[in-house]
Specification:
By secondary structure, this protein is mostly beta strands. Helix content is 2%, strand content 45%. It is built from 1 helix and 33 strands. The radius of gyration is 20 Å and the shape is globular.
């Protein structure tokens, strides 16, 4: 990415819709001077400050409402106020925040004053729970969500579990199709062994949680949204027509090299890219799309809760939306040295 916008944002008609206006991405409200290495999540506090885990630097940064560095939170280690690999920031009620420390399989609790409080082990999940290693989300009300199982060659569906932080009960709230996985026999150093391989571009369901506990599930092959409201009512959307993007020879080589030839890779990529989906505070669902050959910017569709396409837009350069605040949308971009920077748009 580049530090400044070098091309105009392309938005199709319908950018203003019933669930809120698409932000004006033509110019950021601010660009933080702080450099990052690996940011996939952040948390906006009630006063506008930002808690930003940087897994690449193994730091948790605290930014002012205009992106200035205020300091760091906690430190590396195994103690009660420490962490090893801070990946995601999950909001809790009252401006408290949970940081997912996957390397130590625990959470760091940060209080409303942006200071560490204590650490808490991941929950013990009956009949599985390896899905904790892949993806978690939260609704801001104290509930965490994660699939029971991760990539398993013997299972095609897994439940999405809801767990109240600090509790012992797990609710199964949604069935999820898993990404296709195969077991292969390989010869390594003259010995035969079985390895598990995820099939590139054979995506399972993508999901995200809204602040009120509703769940958006995208079926990526037919490109359809199922919206599960907080009361459990499911509204299935109609399939959305989309242009299929072929899986090229370069795509195959980039994923697994020569071994990719032996995997049952689909001819076309699914509608949703590996960046997945996000739910904005206004309930709009932001879907990351694979680029069409010849495009350079990241593509996003904006759907309403009925699964209808409201907007389609392209961000220039290697920009990625990583989160939403009350009025701002936060974007990470890479400069020419692959250093990450954080921008805010309104």
């Amino acid at each position: 990415m580049r530090a400044s916008l070098v091309a105009a944002l392309l938005i199709v008609p319908g950018a203003v819709h019933a669930q809120g206006r698409v932000p004006d991405f033509s110019k950021p409200v601010w660009t933080s001077p702080v450099e990052f290495t690996m940011v996939i999540s952040l948390r906006e506090l009630g006063d506008g400050r930002l808690i930003v885990p940087d897994a690449g630097e193994r730091e948790i940064k605290l930014l002012s409402p205009n992106g200035q560095l205020l300091g760091t939170i906690g430190r590396r280690g195994g103690g009660p106020h420490e962490f090893q690999l801070p990946l995601q920031a999950f909001p809790l009620p009252g401006d408290s925040t949970l940081i997912n420390d996957r390397e130590q399989q625990r959470f760091l609790l940060i209080g409303p004053d942006a200071q560490p409080v204590n650490t808490f082990a991941w929950p013990t999940v009956p009949n599985g729970g390896d899905g904790l290693q892949s993806l978690m989300s939260s609704d801001g009300q104290g509930n965490l969500y994660f699939p029971r199982s991760s990539f398993r060659p013997d299972r095609g569906v897994t439940p999405l579990l809801r767990w109240k932080f600090g509790g012992h009960q797990f609710d199964s709230v949604q069935a999820l199709a898993m990404q296709q996985v195969v077991r292969k026999k390989l010869t390594i150093d003259g010995q035969e062994t079985f390895v598990t391989r995820v099939v590139p571009f054979a995506e399972g369901d993508y999901w995200a949680v809204a602040p009120n506990g509703a769940i958006a599930v995208i079926r990526p092959v037919e490109y359809r949204l199922d919206w599960r409201a907080a009361d459990g009512t499911v509204t299935p959307g109609a399939p959305i027509p989309y242009r299929a993007v072929p899986v090229s020879t370069e795509d195959r080589s980039a994923v697994f090299g020569a071994q990719a030839v032996d995997l049952p890779i689909p001819e076309n990529k699914p509608a949703v890219s590996r960046l997945g989906i996000l739910v904005a505070p206004n309930g709009a669902i932001w879907v990351s799309r694979y680029r069409i050959p010849g495009e350079t910017g990241s593509r996003w569709d904006v759907l309403d809760r009925e699964g209808k396409l409201q907007s389609a837009l392209t961000l220039p350069g290697r920009r990625v939306i990583v989160g939403f605040g009350k009025t701002l949308t936060y974007v990470v971009f890479y400069d020419e040295d692959d250093v990450q920077h954080l921008e805010a748009y309104r």
